[in-house]
Fold:
Amino acid sequence: MIFLSYKKKEVRISYVLFALLFIILASCGSSGQSRELKDEDLDGIWDINDPYPGDTDNDGLQNEVDPDDDNDGVLDSEDAFPLNPLEWVDTDHDGIGDNEDTDDDGDGILDQYDVFPLRPDEWEDTDHDGLGNNEDPDNDNDGCPDAYDLYPDEPARCGDHDGDGVDSLTDLDDDNDGYLDAVEIEEGLSPFDPSSKPLDSDGDGLTDRQEAVFGSNPYASDSDGDGLSDKVEFYLHTNPLSQNSDGDGLGDLEEVGADLNNVPDFDKDGIIDALDYYLSFEFRAPAELNDPMHRFGVAADGSGNIYIANFLSDSIDVYSIKGNFLRSIDSAGLSHPSDIALYDDAIFVADSGNDRIVKISGDGQIAQVFEHQPDGSPGGFSSPRGISIDDSGNIYVADTWNNRIQKRSANSGEWIATGRAGVEQGNFLDPQDIAVGNDGTVAVADYGNFRVQLFDGNLHFIQALNSFSLGLDPLQFKPKSLSFGPDGNLYVLDEANSQVVVISGGVLLRRFGSEGANKNEFNHANGIHVDQNGKVFVSDESRLQVF
Structure:
């Protein structure tokens, strides 16, 4: 009985122990299962198998102390996705990283079409200037502000704001109020608003501000009363306070003419005649018969006085800058003087009829003579027609009937000569004139060979210029006289076409003139000179014109 009772007690104890063991085992099994399914550091490795369960990037640093948990190079403090090595920015804060997001800035424009994928306020840049269209005041960069541009995305047009048939991109007065857009903008006004006008007291189209700068009277539309309004004179750059802006005796109105779209520029030098000094006067009565052998060389001194070698009267005639006769130098026994050069208060003359070069002093007397040598040696001449002197006093002569050119050194006084009759380079046929430029280049009017030849200061040949090289009509180029301008351009008097040909660097620059006896025409032109101010003096059979 007692034994039976003990057995029952032993069984109860066994049940209790078994139950406790089951609970413990169950608890352990549950804990192991939870650990196996957990990935605390989100590194893709279950914690049960992860040697670093709190180290996302497995770099040996627990996330709690690691400044870059996902090792993507972006600090956790700046990383929108600190545990995702593939993402770090979320521009539009939509929970999708920019690398995965197809619209980073959330502006509704897919990144592949968005010029500014990280700016929700911009997505287009029509003119590719780096400014988005919403910010850019001129989307197409055509100079017409978007606020007025009827075609803000088309750079080729802006619209016709004043209805005159001209697009505002080319219209100089967009509101057709009589004031140029540039003027209105400068005055702080709108060029598209016809009611927005600058102050113009006399209503002449020039603002008071413009007239103050220009020097004209803001209360008179034609300050000098010459028939040209101040506005016209402003844009022509003529003097609004003078009826004769260039001081040549011809009024501005006469020289400008009636066609303001075609204001005369006779010599085609880019300066209108109203601003380009012009003088014309007769130095002898027109001859009934014109002799091509006549030559009336011309020169001008620093005071503007004009010297003409009068081939027929055997004198050097001197005129004022206004064309008034001053005196004649005829006491030197000259015979058919053809050309003159001025240097150091003396006059050097190509005294053709006497086969010599003459130096005449200020009192009109002969100071030095270089004359014909029977043996033809340098320093002797046969009907010399052209003479020129450089800044150092070296003398250059076209020794015409000897078909050569000569140079006298100012230092040694010795003459050198080059050339003979012939068509080859460096040879001549009837050389009519010679000129030396500021750079030492020597030009020769090789009349009989229809060309100009260029030499250096030692008379070494450089090149030839003819109708072919200059693009002129074949054999229609007969250089009778020539002169260098202060700009280095060569001015050639072309007898065949009664015109002046201007050459720069061996290339035809421009030409002007024609045959005739009227203004800007030449009647057998034969002499040319360009002074240091750029004035061009041209003589013909009886008249001198200055341009």
About this structure: Residues 2-37 form the longest helix (36 residues).
